[in-house]
Each structure stands twice: as C-alpha cells, then as structure tokens.
Amino acid sequence: MSTYTPSEIEAKWQAAWADAETFKAVRSGDKPKYYVLEMFPYPSGNLHMGHVRNYTMGDVIARYKLATGHNVLHPMGWDAFGMPAENAAMATGIHPKEYTYGNIAHMKSQMQPLGLSLDWSREFATCDPEYYGQQQALFIDFLAKGLIYRKKATVNWDPVDMTVLANEQVIDGKGWRSGAEVERRELVQWFFKISDYSDELLTALDGLDDWPAKVKLMQSNWIGKSRGIDISFKRKDGGDPIVCYSTRPDTMRGASFIAVAPDHPVAKELVNGNPDLADFVEECRKMDTTEAAMEKADKKGMDTGIRVQHPVYPDRELPVWIGNFVLMDYGTGAVFGCPAHDQRDLDFARKYDLPVQNAFYMPGDETEVGTEALVPAKTEPVVFIDHFAGITDSTSQNAIDATIDYFEAQGLGKGQTQFRLRDWGLSRQRYWGCPIPIIHCEKCGVVPEAKENLPVQLPDDVSFDIPGNPLDRHPTWRDCACPKCGAAAQRETDTMDTFVDSSWYYARFTAPHAATPTDIDDAAYWMNVDQYIGGIEHAILHLLYSRFFARAMRMTGHLPQGTQEPFNALFTQGMVTHEIYQTTGDNGRPVYHFPSDITDGKLADGTAVDIIPSAKMSKSKKNVVDPDDILAKFGADTARWFVLSDSPPERDVEWTASGAEAAFKHLSRVWRIANDAASADGGHADQDADLLRAMHKTIIDVTNGVESFGFNAAIAKLYGFTGVLAKSKASAGAKQQATKVLAQLMSPMTPHLSEDIWALLGGEGLIANAPWPVADESMLVEDTVTLPIQINGKRKSEIAVAADTDKATIEGLALADPAVQKALGGATPKKLIVVPGRIVNIVI
RNA sequence: GCCGGUGUGGCGGAAUGGUAGACGCAGGGGAUUCAAAAUCCCCCGACAGCAAUGUUGUGCCGGUUCGAGUCCGGCCACCGGUACCA
Fold it and tell me: Pairing relation of β-strands A317-323 and A360-361?
C-alpha cells in the first residue's frame, strides 16, 4: 500500500475542481444563494497563519453550504492601497505599484495550494484602475447627493519632514523618521456625512441578530447617543456668549469654571494680544491627534481672563479657561467644569485652585468633596442642594430630564441629542490611494471630474526620495481642463482613505467587471453577504463604514432598495498572535527581531531580548510566521486541519510549531483506515449497529459544530469517531459506509484527502458536490443513562438507570446507593433534587 | 483615560447552571522490532496514601443557588479598538 502523499493528492484534486469549475458562481433560480466572504487581505508580501486560519474558516462554511444545496458565491480579492507600499518605496526605491502587484502574485501563489473553494474569476485588487475608477464614480454620486462635504480638520504634521503623519507614524508624540515633535495642523479635507446616519446605524443594530453581541455593543458605544443640553453662558465683557454642551446639567450648582478647546474661536481670538496664552495654545498643539493621547495626557489649562455669568446663580462668576483636554470635535468645543462630581474636573480644580462645590450629597452624608469626586451611578438616589428645577430627592437620571425641561422653560438652554460619532474624514495626503476625482478651477471653484473621464489614474512616474505626497510635486499630473468651463485647472492631489476601498468591495464582487460600480441585477441576486468572517480588530471602523456605504449606495441607486445592511451574519475570529522579540536601539527606540534570529531568548551575539507575549502578528514587529514551511512539509489539508483544531475560532491563537506534526499523523491514519476499509472483507455484521450509531452521532455533532463555528469541537468529535472506526470489527460494507461519511464530514476541512478517499471507495462524482450526510435520529436513542449522585453538590457516586425511569424510582435508587447510605448514616436528607437524565443531588 | 473582550493541568483547549479537564500536544511506561522509524496499548491537575480512597482545584475577593468554570458585584492581569495601521 502506498502512503499518504499530500503533494500528489492535492495537486490532482485542485486540477479536478478547476476543470469542473466546481466553485464558479453563476446566478441560478433553482437553489438558494449563499454569499460567504472573508475580509480580503492587505497584500503585505507573505501569507501568514492568520490568513490561513481566516480563509480556511470561510472555506469550511462555503464547502458546507455547497454540500447542503446552496448556490455559493465565495470570492477573493486584495485590499491593495495603503501606506506599507509607500514605506517600501522610501526604504528600497521599489515602486508601490510593482511592490503591490508583486506581493499579490506571491500571496496568490501561496494561497492557491490551500485548495480554497474560491471563484478566482472574480478576483480584483482595489488598486486596479477598473476598481478605483468605479469608486471615483461613487464619490461623485455621493457628492451630488450631499453625502460628502469639505471642512477643516486637524492632522499630525511633521515639521522636519514637512509631511502629514498617520497616527501609527507618531511614536510618543514624535515623528517616526525625523524624531521631531509632532504638531497639529489644520487642512481642508473631504468628509463623508456618516453622522446623518447616526441614529439609523444605531437602531439598525437591533436587527442584526447574527452579529456578535460584543460587536453591536462596541458600535453602539462608538456611535454614543446621549441626551444633553446646550447651555449659553453670558460673557461679562459683552462678547458672544459661550455655549457649552453638557450631559449632566443636574450638576450645574457645582459648576466652577468653563473650559474651551485650544482651537475654540474664543481661544483663537485671544492669542493675538496675549503671548502667554499663545505659548500655551502652541504647546497644546504639540500633541498627536489620537484620543488615547488626549485622554492620557496631563490635564493642563490657562485662565483666559474672561468671566461668564452662572446662568442659574447670576451673582456667581465663572472663569473661562483653555483646557488641553477639551475636544473641539465633540459637542460645542466648550464644557463647564463641575469638580465635585467629575474626577477629571476635580483634579484640574485642585491643580489650579478653583472652587469645589457640591450639587448634591448622598442621603445622610453631607460631607463636602475632598480629593475624590462624588460620582454615584445615575440610577442612585441623591439629595440635591437648593436645586433650581425644584428637585431635592431624586436620581441623577430623573434630575437631568427635569433640569433640561427647566432650562428650556427659562430660555437658558436647549435640549440636544448628541452623538459621539464624527464625520468620516477621507482625504489622505498620500500617493498610493484612490485619487479624489475633484478639480479646482479658478472660475468654477471645486468641480467633480466628469464621469466619462474616469478613472482618474495615478501617474507612474513618481519618486519617493523625499517625504510627502509625490502627486503634489508631480510636474504635470495636476494639470487638466475644468470639466465645467474648459479652462486650465488643477486636480486635487489628495487620495482617499483606504477604508473607502474596503467599504464596498463586497458589492463589487457581485459583478466585478461591470461598467458601473455595481450591476443592480447581480447585486439584487447575491446581496447581502450571508456570512462575513474577519478579525475582531475591525469591529468598529471597517464594519461601521461598510454599513454606512451600503446605505449611501442604496440612496444613490447602486444597491437595490431591499439592501440595508451589507452583512447578514458576522463572525469575528481571533487573531493569530506570536511573541515579539525586542531590544532597544541607540536612539531609545525599540528594535524588533525575527523569531528565527532568537535562540533561548538571546540574539546570536548573546544580547538578551525583551519578550512581549501574544501580540498581534504584524510585519513591522517582525513576529509573522510563514505557512510555506508547513505546507511544503505536510500539505494543505494538514495546515487547514491544524489551524481549525487547535483553538476555538473566535479566540486568539498563539502560534506554536508543534501540533502540525500531530495533525499530519492523524490524516495519515485516516488515509490508512480508508485503504483498509476499501480492501476489507468479511467482518462481523453484529457489530454494524454500534459503528453506525457512532457515525450518526458524529454526523449530528459535526453538523452542529460547523453551523455554530465550533470547528475545534467538531474536529475533536472526528478524532473520536476515527478511533471507533479504527477499532471496529463491523462488516466491510458498514466500514465502507462509515468511512465515506467520515470523508464527507472531514471534507470542508480536508477537501483533498476527502476527495481521494471518496474516489477510492467508489463515491459518485466529486465529494465537493455530494449532498451532506443526514443523521438517522432513530439510531441515537440511548436505552440507559448514567446519573451522577451528588451530596451537597459534590459528586459521590453514580447509578445507571433506564432512560425512561420516573423520578420516584430514581429517588429510591439514589437513596439506596451504598455511598449515599454511608453519608446519610441513617438520617433523613433535607432535600432531594432529581433532574431527569442529568443528575441527582442530595442535601443533608 | 475610555469602550469591548479574555483568564481552566506542563501546553492548546472541552464542559444547554448539573460528574471540571473531552480531544490533541508534551511527558512517562509497555507491546512490536536484531535495532530503529512507523504503528498499537496504558498512565498523566495538585496534595496525602501501597492501594481503595480522601482533600483540594477553573486569575483574586465576595454574593446568588440544592448545585457556579458558567449568573451577579468589586478587583487584578493581559489582548483588541480608540476615528490617518490594515
């Protein structure tokens, strides 16, 4: 007998699938459609185990759905624009286009041997002009419908390299290449009006029954609907009033200062005549733009000298400060500080010696706030001090509502529903992205490119020897004719955020070469995605943007009216993690090392490295593991089996090399068992029922496992059934039947091996097209059950009873059990709990 | 900081509120073999005990329950996101 040789088997069956076009998706009326999609990869250069895990999961679903009678669409493409290509261009001189398409070719060559059931005829890369040209058409249509607008926004500016930096390129407030302190700078940029859909995107979460609750919760918190009030504070100097947004107007009695953002109009108006203030605002600018940096920074402020009047207690005067912790993007860019009931405000007040005054006490405890703010849950009753809205004992929740009513009635403020969600800035000052199809004409202003001139293609003749956007300094690319008046004009040199590319690719897969962004008939047939699979790191941004795009595309006629949400079901897999090996470089910055360069925690020269456990695999951190070796040594089926078997799919998995060997041994064993079964004769027919009962049980377990993404549990059951089959003395016919079913149940995970076994045992056609086995439930009824007996919740014994034994009989049997008799010592139990088919618990 | 998640043997992990540790890895022992590889069988949380068995045990503290890995409250650690990484 020959041995299990994956290299032969896998090439053979991949060719068979290709010849039969088994996975080509064609619209059809006689089967229900099923669209399964994994988040498409960024072509970083090498496939890593995270990809293998992700695509194998999707493949299991796709193959299972094919076997259960669905017309399956399972496409693949490339999220191909992005910064790494430009970084590579700066580092090595290779052109981003060459880098990207080279990486795609290599990764595709690594992906194809995995035997994924993909319809490669639909493949595209987002950097294909055919794709991004349609994206430009979408931009123009969105703009026409008022879904896109321009405004000023803050970016990270590297004053040495004279370039905009991504948040990732800012390390401890400094530019990653220049090391210069990053500044904030305002640029006019394009925005999607995603905030128009805040309420819609929030309420529609309720309908996403097959999304993980955690993702819906994260999105809900991100959108952040809150009810509050805009309160106007009159300036003593007669200037325009300062409007503060607050969700806690019930704490107004304790308001002791106003804080405005450093880029608030009030601050801007003052810096001219006040050098100290100007210095402070300048200092506030020297911080990167991330929320985390803002929130973690020391709270600093400076008095502007402006005083406002307390709206409820007119004889009280509040100072107006500039605070580095106030965000211009949220609310009105100004807040009132109530130190007694907000820890951050309290720290600020103590630091700058501002008054602290309670608005309420806890019942029976009139202690004034010291170093810890009094912040009870909004549902807890508190005692308000001379509350202006006529409230004394109340929860804050009720007091907030009453206070808003009071302010509105008094004409002091206006109730507001506020969302945390901000509009989506899409402009990027970079080369390797989709050009924004806009022309700036001296006469006509900002004009969208005419659709017949699309795609606006990126020029190839660019250089990356200096930082900044090469489109900006290209000698001729900007020059064009105004589509409106025909006069000489200039193209916009900003490109689009790469999140735009990935916000509609799922729709493009339904008609990847249509002359419009989508073909409405194809979209109507294939949409929505029935099962979407990807990393939890995309829980908010990518998924929220895609949900917005589906709505915007429907509004502009690019998706059918029935399409609301893009993804019916979502599964978020965990990440493949690996230790990071790090040393510190001369400049104090971390230096990363490849796992292959580390022996026993040391570099070759003996330098000890810091080990950071379980971090997301990332090329820049050099902790990526290549699947090539595994594939070369054991084949695709082993790699697929292993990544599914070792860990629950929603959880992170720490990559280790051991285990793949065991997976290979197991598949070799299955191969041997199948060959034995094929040549078996004789056997004991009286053993058949036991084998077939185990088979039917396994059909149920594996089917449930696949349906519920319990792949590791399904595989554990398959191990168990393989053991039963190996030991079985049943007749040849029963063994062959069981082996064919085993091959079928394994086929979503190990498609090549399964095809081979199927063919060996005379299965009809391809196993990929064979209908999924159905369990005979009548074979699963158990005659007897074993009931554990607990005494005071601890297991002491067990009894075997007929499955249909009534409670009273079980009670009698349990009490008669020697272990129970011993524990009781003649006493009567206090309580006796019998859960039929489950357990007996005796309380003594 | 804020939002979300995770925590179970030496390791990956299993367990509708019902026998904690399925299945696999690593380790130990044995069979087969001239020997090895491959394969097959057995053992394998900790402590005590020759053993039967007993005690203990799911990050920490507390609670609900006949019964908690699972539910609730409070902590700790780690991971993801934090709007220009993808």
Answer: unpaired
- Residue A606 φ/ψ, nearest 5 degrees: 95, -5
What tokens appear for A467 in the block?
């930082």
| Cα–Cα distance for residue pair A8/A255, rounded to 1 Å | 77
A198-230 tens-digit pLDDT: 999 999 999 999 999 999 999 999 999 999 999
pLDDT, tens digit (0-9, with 9 covering 90-100), for A596-618: 666 656 666 767 666 665 566 66
Tell me, in Å, how far CA of A842 is from C1' of B18?
13
Kindly report which listed range (A49-63, A327-341, A421-435) carries the lowest average pLDDT score: A327-341
Strand partners, A428: A495
How many Cβ atoms are within 10 Å of A689's Cβ, its own excluded?
Answer: 12
- Interacting residues of A702 by C-beta distance below 8 A, sequence separation 6+: A714, A717, A718, A745
Neighbours of A12 (CB within 10 A): 13
Q: Scanning the structure block, which residue is given the tokens 């006019």? A: A188
List, as one string, the DSSP characters of A731-797: -HHHHHHHHHHHHHHHTTTSHHHHHHHHHHTT-SS-GGGSPPP---GGGG--SEEEEEEEETTEEEE
- What is the separation, in whole angstroms, between the first and last Cα of chain A? 63
Query: Nearest nucleotide by C1' from A787 CA?
Result: B19
Q: Is the CB of A713 under 7 A from strand B?
A: yes
Q: Between A565 and A3, where is the model more confident?
A: A565
A785: which strand partners?
A801
**Nearest nucleotide by C1' from A426 CA?**
B84
Supply the mean pLDDT for chain A.
90
Q: Give me the interface pTM, i.e. the ipTM.
A: 0.94
Helix (H/G/I), strand (E/B), else coil: A656: coil
